[in-house]
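WARN retry 2 of 3 for item q-0093 after timeout on previous attempt; input resubmitted unchanged.
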Amino acid sequence: MIYQITKGIKISVVTNNKGVSFKDKTPFYVYSYAITIENNSSDTVKLTDRFWQIYDSLSATEIVSGEGVVGQTPVLAPNDSYTYTSGCFLASNIGAMKGFYTMINLDTFEQFKVVIPNFQLITPYLLN
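OK item q-0093 returned
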């Protein structure tokens, strides 16, 4: 597990290689990731947007952004946590992701960015 803390918000990431999938005889490497967002601050916050950079060693960097995560804009009171799972398809068996969430402090209405740490997407046999 890898994690990053920004303004009392802890982002933890666990990745999983799901094997290979084929589309029109072209192989794609499938990865899933579970992200837990923990509010260790004393304020209530809401996740409003996401921004991702997805690196693939055989492809151009893909940018993904939009409202919320997996169709949700979770509100986290102090000591609350929220976990979701998502995934991506890469042309290669080596890649990485990083980004940030835009959040709003519902007590002060301050908008701020929370760093999603850089995490690797690597086929397990490459780790030996």
